[in-house]
Task: inverse folding
């Protein structure tokens, strides 16, 4: 099993930047991919933000944040970051870090970190 802890959220004005971090503990060697999701207030659903696959180094960025957000991190042994630039009020959400492990049926989730963007 793995455990995930996010940090770096906060209040920022529109146009500003934040960097979120996700630290993994436990069996980090079993993690092959990590991702960020977010849930906006009142949405009730999780929106995909970004994903990174460690073996290939490939990344995928969600359409809503493409060109503004960057995901980085080479393995679950090191922190994974989500650099968020040119933030918009629509980016206000709880941001969750997830990890997929070999042989696992579902992803592990962190507790989330709140990001609030004021206009």
Result:
């Amino acid at each position: 099993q793995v455990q995930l802890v996010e940090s770096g959220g906060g209040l920022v004005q529109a146009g500003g930047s934040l960097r979120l971090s996700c630290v993994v503990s436990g069996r980090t060697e079993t993690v092959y991919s990590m991702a960020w999701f977010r849930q906006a207030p009142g949405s009730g659903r999780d929106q995909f933000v970004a994903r990174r696959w460690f073996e290939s180094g490939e990344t995928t960025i969600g359409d809503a944040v493409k060109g503004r957000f960057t995901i980085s991190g080479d393995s679950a042994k090191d922190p994974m970051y989500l650099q968020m630039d040119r933030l918009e009020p629509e980016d206000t959400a709880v941001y969750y870090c997830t990890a997929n492990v070999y042989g696992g049926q579902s992803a592990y989730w962190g507790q989330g970190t709140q990001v609030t963007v004021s206009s």
